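ok new one. same drill as before - structure tokens go in, u give me an amino acid for every spot. 80 of them this time. try not to just spam alanines like last time pls lmao
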């Protein structure tokens, strides 16, 4: 999804799922999103519904620690 598509969609929830990165690794890189002028205007941001995931466990690569997206959505997220 491009940035323009994200901004136009103005989603109710944003889930950041960086493949292979945990929240500690992702958080310092969030400025690439949060520094954009449109970021604070997004509905998900205004309503506190932006979530970082542990990409080591929620990536599309199946492995021992892999969580299904459904299981992730129910139990495993960190609010930003």
């Amino acid at each position: 999804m491009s940035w323009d598509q994200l901004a136009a969609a103005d989603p109710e929830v944003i889930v950041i799922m960086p493949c292979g990165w945990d929240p500690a690794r992702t958080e310092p890189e969030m400025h690439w999103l949060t520094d954009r002028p449109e970021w604070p205007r997004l509905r998900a941001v205004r309503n506190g519904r932006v979530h970082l995931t542990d990409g080591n466990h929620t990536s599309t690569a199946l492995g021992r620690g892999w969580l299904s997206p459904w299981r992730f959505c129910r139990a495993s997220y960190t609010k930003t």
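Helices lie at 3-9, 23-26, 31-34, 43-46, 55-58, 69-75. and btw Residues 3-9 form the longest helix (7 residues).
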